[in-house]
Structure prediction request, 377 residues.
Amino acid sequence: MTRPPLRVQLLTRDQHLAFVAARPSASHMQMPSWGEVKPDWTPESLGWFDEEGRPAGAGLVLMRPLPKLRKYLAYLPEGPLIDWHAPDLAERWLAPMLAYLKGRGAFSVKMGPPVVVRRWSSEAVKAAIADPAARRLRDAEPTSRDQRALDIAEGLRRAGWRQAEPGSEEGFAAGQPRYVCQVPFAGRSLDDVQRGLNQQWRRNIKKADKAGVKVVRGGYEDLPVFYDLYVETAERDRFIPRPLPYFQRMWDALTAEHPDRMRLYLAHHDGDTLAAATMLTVGTHVWYSYGASTGRRREVQPNNAMQWRMMTDAHELGASVYDFRGITDTLEESNHLLGLLRFKVGAGGEAVEYLGEWDFPLNRLLHKALDLYMARR
Prediction:
């Protein structure tokens, strides 16, 4: 028996937060507060309701207008929060969302299903890096594979969704990363997590402690200190930094929603701040969000000390996973991002591949124009 499509309508902020609170976790990009971080987008909280009027799903959609036209790109980063394994996913869940967004003037919809396809243990990643035949992570045999995720991808294609092409940076999507590194915490003691660190990590943490590195939590007033280090990091690692007001908005919006949603950590040594990082928490999922460090006194290993403090605090919060966010899919030594992959995997992290981002063109002409514009950028 075919079930009727769910009803999609706006949620209040309280309804959205209540829905997320009833789940183990959700992406921070699917929280109402994330819409306040993005002033160029108009945020809306969408709800899916069943026949009895009970909420069955939720999603934060960000609407961005095309210049001079009342047409919008609708984006659900790392969402929506729906039953992705439902047998009637396209008809019951996604079709009413597309109809609602088309009625709101959307010409194209982009979403990032929070569905894991494959995982590689830290040992499997290390072996892949050492294997000259493995040029990409996807060439290496995964530790686990979820056939249901592949079935979802096939169902999306049949329904007219298109998998978004990766961005120019190898392994990173144009929107959110498809490949991430996560340290599993569920069911593990802190001692067990520590035993998962590789020898280099353990040695560096001891070296930082012996050198007198102190890691402290900061506040809003410390964001300019973090920002100075972040700009230095951007110059060194060749990326364009976000402006300081972005992080100030992020702090205001996220901590107003929950006082522990966002934290700032700073690593000090002899009165100098050598590294800083932001940490985000929703439910049992904790993310290392933005990191920054100086080239000064790297020998005292402030980054390892700071990350270990953040991992320790995340474990104390009851986290089931500590998420290092994006990693490269490229395993070639010439890639400047390979060192970052080694650093994250060295903490006992496993490589995780998500379904990636998917587009549905509601107006093919405008969608094509957007593709051309993004390609030129």
